[in-house]
Amino acid sequence: MRVLGVDPGSNATGFGVVVREGGHVRHLRHGVLRPPTGAALSDRLHFLHTELSTLIEAEKPEVAVVERVFIAANPRSAIVLGQARGALLASLGASRVRVVEIAAREAKKAITGSGAADKGQMQLMVTRLLKLDETPPTDAADALALALCFAQAGALADLPIRGRRRNNRRAMTEIVAGRTR
Amino acid sequence: MRVLGVDPGSNATGFGVVVREGGHVRHLRHGVLRPPTGAALSDRLHFLHTELSTLIEAEKPEVAVVERVFIAANPRSAIVLGQARGALLASLGASRVRVVEIAAREAKKAITGSGAADKGQMQLMVTRLLKLDETPPTDAADALALALCFAQAGALADLPIRGRRRNNRRAMTEIVAGRTR
User: Fold this and answer.
1) B59 given a catalytic annotation
2) What's the pLDDT tens digit per position in B117-154?
3) A9 falls within a domain
4) Among residues A131, B7, B43, B62, which one has the fewest Cβ atoms lying within 10 Å of its Cβ?
C-alpha cells in the first residue's frame, strides 16, 4: 500500500510518499510545493492543485493522509490555510484517492511518543524511522510523519496474530476514525 | 466584455454571468453550485472545481469577480469558507481568467446605494437592473451583483466624455484596486 502524506500550507505544502510492504514501511519520496511568490492568489492555488495532481499521477498512492485542522490562530490565517487545503483536497477528489485526515498531535504522538513534539524532534524521528540519509525539510518531515503514522498502523494490523494484535487493531481504528468520509 | 461573478460557499456557491456591450450591461446566466451533501470533503471541493471549470469553458468570461473576505465569524467557518474559495480560485487560475476581488459591502453599495443592504434588497435591485423575469436565489443574486458592479464601472468608463467622466473613472479604479494580482 502506497501512502501519500500532505501538510497543507499556502507558501509551503509538504508531501511525503511511503510504501507499506508487509510489516515494513519504506520511504519513496518527499518534497515541498512552493507556489511562485508574487503570483496572483488564483495562480498560486492552481499551482498547488496541478502539482499535487502530477504527484498523484506519478506515485499512484492508495491513501492520502492530510493534516487535520482543528483551529487556526485567527480567521485571517484560517482563510489562507483553508484556501490551500481547498485547492489540494479538490486535487485529491479529482484523483479518487481515499482521503484520511489525521491531527498533527496524533501524528506527533505516534512518531515521537509525545503529542507536543517540536519540528526538530519530528525531523529526527522521521529521518531515523525511514532510514533517510538526509534530514528532510520541516514541512516534508511533517508530511512523511502523517504518511508513516497511517502506514505503520496498517503494518501492525498486517502482523500475524499475537497477544497484542487486538490492541494494535484498535490503535489503527482510532487513527482511521479521523478520516474525512 | 463578459464578466463572471462568484460568491463562494461550501454548501452553495452562487455564480452569475453578464456581458457589457458599450454602455449597457446584459444578463446572460446565473445559478448555484451545490456540492452533493454527504459526499467526502475532497469530492465536494472537486465538484466546485470542475463545475466552475465547465462554466468558464462554456461562458468564456474575460474577468471573474470573487467576493472578497475580510474576516469570518470564527476560525472554523473561516477554514470551511477558505476551502471552497481555494477550490474555486484554483479553477480560475487554471483558466487564466483575470480575477478581481470585491468586498460584499462595495457591491452592496454600488447596487443598492447602501453597504448594509440585506439579501432581499440585493435580489430586488439585481432583478430590476438586469430586467430579470424571476428573482434569482440569494447566492446567485450576490454573484450577479458582483459581476454587475464590475461591469457597470467598466460601462461608465466606456461612455463618451461628460462632466462626470473623471469621477466615474475614479470610482472604477477604486473597485479595480480590489483585484488580487
Assistant:
1) no
2) 999 999 999 999 999 999 999 999 999 999 999 998 87
3) yes
4) A131
User: What type of residue sits at position B120?
Assistant: G
Is there a contact between A41 and B89 (Cβ–Cβ < 8 Å)?
yes
Interface test with A, best of B10, B13, B54, B83 (most A CBs within 10 A): B83
* Number of domains into which chain B is organized: 1
Task: Tell me whether A54 touches chain B (CB under 8 Å).
Answer: no
Domain presence at residue A181? no
The ipTM of this complex is 0.82
Q: How far apart are CA A93 and CA A111, in angstroms?
A: 27
Tell me, yes or no, whether B34 lies in a domain.
yes
Tell me if chain A has a CB within 8 Å of the CB of B110: no
Q: What is the CA radius of gyration of chain A?
A: 16
B49 contacts A94? CB cut-off 8 A: yes
Q: Which amino acid is at A43?
A: D
Strand, coil or helix: what is B129?
Answer: helix
For chain B, say whether A11 makes contact (Cβ under 8 Å). Answer: no
- As a whole number of angstroms, the distance between CA A113 and CA A121 comes to 10
Let me know if residue A29 belongs to a domain: yes
pTM of the predicted structure, to 2 decimals: 0.84
Say which CATH number the domain at B139 has: 3.30.420.10
Please give the Cα distance from A75 to B76 (Å, whole number): 8
Q: How many CA atoms lie within 13 A of A118 on its CB side?
A: 1
Taking CB atoms and an 8 Å limit, are B46 and A87 in contact across chains?
A: no
Q: Please check whether residue B178 touches A, CB under 8 A.
A: no
Question: Which residues face A6 on adjacent strands?
Answer: A15, A66
Distance CA A77, CA A83 (A): 10
Determine, for residues B69 and A79 on separate chains, whether the beta-carbon distance falls below 8 Å: yes
Domain holding B67, by residue range, is 2-176
Element (H, E) at A19: strand A13-21
What confidence category does residue A20 fall into, taking pLDDT thresholds of 50, 70 and 90?
A: very high
Q: Which of A35-49, A82-96, A144-158, B131-145 has the lowest mean pLDDT?
A: A144-158
The answer to whether B180 and B68 are in contact (CB under 8 A) is no
